[in-house]
Amino acid sequence: MAFSVEVEEWVGGIWHRFITRRASPEFPEARVELADMQRSLAVLFRALGGASGVELAAASARELLLRRSLLQQVAGTCQQAPVAWCDPGNLRLPASLAVFPDVALNRELYRWLALLAAHAGPMRHWGRDNQRWTAELLERYPALRKRYQRLVEAMLPLRPAPEQMPAEEAALERALRQALRQPGSVDKFPRSERSPWPLPLWLYPPQRLDDPQAASLEDSEEEEGVGLKPPSEEGKAPRKRAERVEENTGKGGLLLFRLENLFSWSEHVDLDRCGDDTEDLDAARVADDLDHLSVSRKRSSKGGGLKLDLDLPSAENDDVPFGEGIRLPEWDYRKQALVEDYVLLQPMLPRDAEPKSLPLHLAPLARRLRRQFEHLRNDRQWLRQQPQGSELDLQAWLDFHVERVHGQCVERGLFMDMRQSRRDLACLLLADLSMSTDAHLDDEHRVIDLIVDSLLLFGEALSAVGDPFALYGFSSLRRNQVRLQELKTFRQRYDDTTRGRIQALRPGYYTRMGAAIRQASRTLAARPQKRKLLLLVTDGKPNDLDLYEGRYGVEDTRQAVIEARRMGLLPFCITIDREAGDYLPYMFGVNGFTLIHDPKQLPFRLPQLYRQLTQP
User: Fold this and answer.
1) 139, 306, 342, 580: least surrounded by Cβ within 10 Å?
2) 107: alpha, beta or left, given left = phi > 0 and alpha = psi -120 to 50?
3) Are strands 531-538 and 425-432 parallel, antiparallel or unpaired?
4) Strands 337-349 and 482-488
């Protein structure tokens, strides 16, 4: 019996693979993965005018009402199709393309979609808008015409023949073929009960539950935040198709059967009916397996009652706030304006922070760093183009000679002199303390442990060189709870009190970078030094529970960095996020950040980076 079951499963597997392969319209041997082209497509999209804050990622398959062949109905395929779409914050392309039997054509299709998305705007009509965008793109870049025609000529034979379709669907198919050959020539498309066969050369309208950034502020404030685990290191899952449904409590309805007809179980069953409110470890895996998600929103009543936010600890266990908080603006890229007094930043001190000495495992490295940085305190440097000095400045003499030959002689000093240099600079370090820093790198190290060690060694090095510096940490829970941990101000000494505050740090909450950078910029800009360095240590991109997610958070952080540069500061980001190359160049500039590939090297690399950034 077991043997027959195994044979049946084996035969069934062979039949499934055979019928699926025969019914599929794709060419698996020529498949191209988005992951292999994602970096180059992002560069192409932004080079042709696409917004830098737009996230490029994989799109999930979309269910379309297609007319399938008998073979496809038997195989159960072609019910869903991955299509490309974009909106102001996202560009979603199919996770893989196997539309053409040629790999080069599939790669070219990816590039065309990126170019079309860079030129696209809000979609009001699927057919007319795609024609208009295509025509404008080909008119602006005539070199693309041959590539576009090659894609069209290769695609038309793969589409269903109009002669084998019902009249309404055939008319729509002919109109689409005409629109592909001559973009802009079709103004009115025939109606059809069935969707046309997927058109990979065009963009589709966004299909999302709701725009979280367009949600009203009241809704975002009322809904409770749900802490989700960050995506796995293997890659980001494509977005799910979703719909908003009304909450059904199951209390209504009419009983339409007789209860005495139900069978009963009279024997005792040893069943534990205790409620289990622990975290479901398989929830993420189950969500990945689902193609369609239904979400309901439960509105809380406006009446009296006790409202608890379980994300925040009680006042007895939380860090110690001081002051009434600081109101700060926030950049809304949709309005292209700063929203004044939108964020409330609360300065805080770590609770139960007792003075402590430097941990023993950091003592040897701290001694070595102190010796290295003490040399910078008494560092002597050569000053060029001096009217008198101990050495001849050969470069200044060569410049003088060339200018004299060309009749443009300018008086300049021709000597070099060794003099004591004065380090006229100040530094403020801002550390990310969000819940993601609680992640383990291995069995012994967490990200927060490395950040604590980095702050301690950074303080030892800068106290040795004598540069004024300040240390802060930050996290957030929506816009009215941005937490700024004060570890050391410019006026305070670096001593055991500061070391105790650093070692008392605890990770939690989220990462509203813009508000923290703005407050740090104000503090640093008030210093009298000429050179001012603002360092940010983080392990991920900006995010929060409300609308501060995706492009909104990236754009606000970028605007905060621009404001810091206008104040005369030098912002620089140090990260251990391997995906930082996708968003940090836009936020901090190409030369405004560095990636630490081995996070365990962060405590040692941070003082060295400071030394490199502050070299005259």
Assistant:
1) 306
2) alpha
3) parallel
4) parallel
For the stretch 537-590, pLDDT in tens is: 998 889 998 889 888 999 999 999 999 999 999 999 999 988 888 888 889 988
Partners of 593 in beta bridges? 573
* Per-position b or e across 157-189, b if 16+ CB within 10 A of its CB: eebbebeebeeebbbbbebbbebbeebeebeeb
Cα 460 from chain centroid (whole Å): 33
Would the pLDDT of 209 be above 50?
no
CA dist., res. 380 & res. 530, Å (int): 19
CA distances from 504 to 319, 351, 499, 510, 513 (A): 10, 7, 9, 19, 22
The domain spans of the chain are: 26-181, 337-375+423-613, 380-420
Task: Return d(Cα 302, Cα 279) in angstroms, integer.
Answer: 29
Report the SS3 class of residue 247.
coil
Angle, helices 126-140 vs 167-181, to 10°: value is 20
Place of tokens 């101990």: 390
pLDDT band, residue 616 (cuts 50/70/90)? low
The CA distance from 28 to 430, in Å, is 49
Cβ proximity of 120 and 131 under 8 Å: no
Residue whose tokens read 């080079």: 47
For 447-493, the DSSP string reads HHHHHHHHHHHHHHHHHHHT--EEEEEEEESSTT-EEEEEEE-TTS-
Alpha carbon distance 166, 67 (integer Å)? 10
Structure tokens at 45: 């999209």
List C-alpha distances in Å: 197 to 70, 134, 155, 338, 571. Answer: 16, 19, 12, 45, 50
CATH class label, 337-375+423-613: alpha beta
Q: Residue 42: is its pLDDT beyond 50?
A: yes
- Residue 357, exposed/middle/buried by CB under 10 A (0-12, 13-18, 19+)? exposed
